[in-house]
Amino acid sequence: MKEGSSSATTATARDFIKDFHGVRYQVSDVTRAIEFYTERLGFKLEHQAVPAFANVSLGGLALLLSGPQASGSRPMPDGERQTPGGWNRIVLRVENLPACIERLKEAGLRFRNEVVTGPGGRQIQLEDPDGNAIELFESASRA
Q1: Both ends of the chain: CA-CA distance in Å?
Q2: In terms of residue numbers, what domain contains 62?
Q3: Which one of 31, 54, 115, 133 is at 20 to 30 Å from 83 when CA atoms are compared?
């Protein structure tokens, strides 16, 4: 080991990153977000600290819903505010995409686009009440 170096300076991220924790979405109303994800999309409510935060899950996905009062929503050091929306998204695998879309449209949910088909399957983007994207994906082997 070189003089002045330590194991802390030669450590890599793999030495500290242990597991996947979840995906965080910024929301303006945690109660409304809980209702959307649990009642419309079948997520399970794991924990809530309304009005600041909730954790919902589906399969192995933990979705962390952070309201404006949450520590995970605080402004960045330069003052930039964390806001909902954007193009990153969770992807939910579905069966019978047309029937799924029809049911969600009947419930008044908003879609960003029409169905797009590619070599792996077909997908469409849905929005939660705060504009966060959710992709509904049906594998080509099931389409």
Answers
A1: 57
A2: 21-73+83-139
A3: 115
